[in-house]
Amino acid sequence: MTHKGNAVVTRLALIGAAVAVSIVVSSTAVNAQEVPETKRWAVSVNATQVFVREDAPNITLAGGPVPGSNVRIGDATSMTVDIAYFFTPNIAADLFLGVPATAEINGAGSLEPLGTLAKVNYGPVILSAQYHFNNLGPVHPYLGLGVGRVVFLNERDRALTNFSIDDSWAPAAQVGVRYELDAAWMLNADVRYVPFSTHVSGSLGGAPARATLDIDPILTNVGLTYRF
Questions:
Q1: Which of 52, 75, 187, 188: disulfide with 225, CB 3.0–4.6 Å?
Q2: Which of 62, 87, 63, 73 lies closest to 165 in space, CA to CA?
Q3: Mean pLDDT in the chain?
Q4: What is the reported pLDDT for 7?
């Protein structure tokens, strides 16, 4: 991503964080006695599919560009949990995290003959402000906006040696729906969009390699929610 693109992503992340914080802070002013029937907590356990769209527009080797080069990162599956606290029947703060998935970074274009460049585990930690619509009977659509930190763990060399990848901040948007099974249990389905850029470094044949990865993951979640 260009410097301008990085600035846009950073600005979106800051806006998402500001919106999340402002909604959460303002909602604390609501008198709890006005909503005594509200179940304050909701915990969801989800099966998550991560669909990845990636681009590496500026791969360099020994300081020079590598013509026609790119990378490919496969989709992944994971288990995730989100924990929500409801300030009112409609407004909640939600923390989303899960079991780190595995990313296999493969060479593409002119780098395809190298095969797998590196492997790494990753996972987002997302804090969102959510608005839930409660006027449709047992069906509860909701929207979320916030900020996430994409954390990378357990970096493993393949064609690249001394492989390193930076953690990154990201804006996070969400749309979802829950269906009441009874007073405590609900079915949950949601989609999250968490675009980010990160920097990668390593060595290839003894020469330093650098790249910026622009990654646009979409996380689809299906699970079960317990309210209390």
A1: 188
A2: 73
A3: 90
A4: 54
What are the two backbone dihedrals, phi and then psi, of residue 135, each rounded to the nearest 5 degrees?
Answer: -110, 20
Helices of type H across 138-215: none
d(CA 117, CA 202): 10
The helix (run of H) or strand (run of E) holding residue 185 is strand 185-193
Phi, psi dihedral angles at 110 (to 5 degrees): -70, -15
CA gap 77, 79 in Å, rounded: 7
Segments in the chain below pLDDT 70? 1-36
* Phi/psi of residue 21, nearest 5 degrees: -65, -45
Output the pTM of the full model. 0.83
How many C-beta atoms surround the C-beta of residue 36 within 10 A? 6
- Tell me the C-alpha distance between 91 and 88, whole Å: 5
Are the CB atoms for 3 and 214 separated by under 8 Å? no
> What domains can you pick out in the chain, each with its CATH number?
3-227 (2.40.160.20)
Contact 97, 124 (CB under 8 A): yes
Span 123-167, pLDDT tens digits = 999 999 999 999 999 999 999 999 999 999 999 999 999 999 999
